Structure formats: structure tokens, C-alpha cells
Amino acid sequence: MGCDSATGATERVGRVVVGWEQDMTEFPRRDAAWVPFSRNFAARLVAEPETYNISQAAADSYAELAQQYAEKFAVADNPSTRTSPALAARDEVLVPLERATKTWARFFKGQNSISNEKLIELGLRARQPRQRHGPYEFAPSVSVVSVTGNTVRVRFRDLQSPSRRGKPPHQRSIRVLVRVGGETNEGTAGMTYFRTISKPVANLEFPVDVPMGTVVWISGQWMNSRGEGSPLALAVYARLIGGSAMIRPTNLAA
Fold it and tell me: Is pLDDT above 70 for 191?
């Protein structure tokens, strides 16, 4: 007997009632649950192939596969006929059934003409709108770990979660800005893009023609996947003299 909806279909196995809507995943986890799930899936396709943008032949082919599985499962589930060959025959049909179901599910979700309501009727999850994450509200902090020759090792941190070693949620990279030279705080004047780093700790290698003793100012900002940046970090400076770096924070306006 076909299932009228994904939310109401259940299959009783022993004392356990298995409903695919109870699973945390989109598709059934238990062999028994594939029987009502595929029956409902097939019934919807056969009844409205045009709604799902498939041919009647394709819908009938899936329905035949679902029926084959239901028959094999019934034999394998019956204590009197539950043998190793019966279990193998059940599993042999489940593999293409599962593959076909997931293939069609991906196809249907890619069709804008198929509504979420129709997806739910198939037993699938509705499409979820992509959540837009804007630029991170808070600036990172930047510190100089060490200076070796013309290489400055820096670390960026999220001050909202000081114990976190990685980037804030939904931030893809860090845009590093520098200014070479200058002993005094000049804000953002002369500060230019240096490079983009993917990890909070990185080595910034300055050109070999930058003389030893030169002061370099370093700032940066978190960047999301759309290239939107957070406020700039308070800058630090390092003198390219090797060994430990001197650090002085200063306010930089975005």
C-alpha cells in the first residue's frame, strides 16, 4: 500500500516502528525504512512525472526498482525465509535503489520549478535558503611573534574568543596591510595591501632590498567569502633587525 505523505509513513519491524521522518539524515538509515520511503517516492513520481520534470518511463523504472526491493525485503525479513542468499538478494537491490534515489533527489533540488512542498511530499528536506553572513563586526588583534632578517612572523587573534586559535566563524581569510618605513603613527596613510593569508599565524617576507633597521607597520582584517572585511586591527610595528621585534600598538581607522 502506497504512502500518502512522508511525515506519516511508517514501517513496523518487530516491536519497533521505523519512520524515515524520524531519521536525522535525509534518507533512511534502516533497511526496513527504505520500503515505505521508496514506495512513497515512486508513487509521487508515477502520479506526477511532469511535475518533477522526468518522463513517465523514468518514473515507472524507479517504481519497478522500489517494488523489487519491497519484495526482496519481505523475503529476507520473514523468519521462515530469512537466509543468507535472501539477505544478499535484498542488499543487491538496495544498492541501486539508494543510488537512484539520491541521484533523483539531487536533480529535483536543482530544479527551481519543483517547489519545496513537492520535495517534502517525496520525503526530502526542503531547500534551505543560503544564510548570508556579513562582515565580521570586530577587528582582529595582531602581534609580532618574531623577526628574522626581513621575515616577520605575526599572529592574528579574535579578541571576542581569545582562546580560539583559528579565524572567527564564516571568515575565510585575513587581509594583511603594511606600511614600510616611518617611526611615528600615521594612521592608514601609506598603508597598502601586502598579502592575504588563510591561517592566523603567518610569516611576512619583506623584499630583500628593504634595509635592515627599517620599521614596518602591520595591520589586517578578517575577510568573508564575499570579500567583505572587518574593521582594521590596531597596528604593530617591527624593526627588521633580526631577533626579537619591538611592538607598539596604534589606532588605525578603516
Answer: yes
Q: What is the CATH number that goes with domain 140-239?
A: 2.60.40.10
pLDDT in tens, 17-55: 333 333 335 899 999 999 999 999 999 999 999 999 999
Cell of 245: 621585534
What is the dihedral sign for C-alpha 92, 97, 102, 103?
positive
Which strand ranges, in their side-by-side order, compose the sheet holding 173-180?
192-197, 173-180, 215-223, 236-239
Average predicted confidence (pLDDT) for the chain: 84
Where does CATH 2.60.40.10 sit in the chain? 140-239
Question: What grid cell was written down for 9?
Answer: 509513513
The label of the residue with cell 598603508 reads 191
Strand 215-223 relative to strand 173-180, pairing: antiparallel
Sheet of strand 151-158, all strands in order from the earlier edge strand to the far edge:
140-148, 151-158, 201-205
pTM of the predicted model, to two decimals?
0.50
- Report the sign of the C-alpha dihedral through residues 109, 111, 112, 117, in that order: negative
Band of the pLDDT at 131, cuts 50, 70, 90? confident
What are the residues facing 146 on neighbouring strands?
A: 153
Beta bridge partners of 61: none
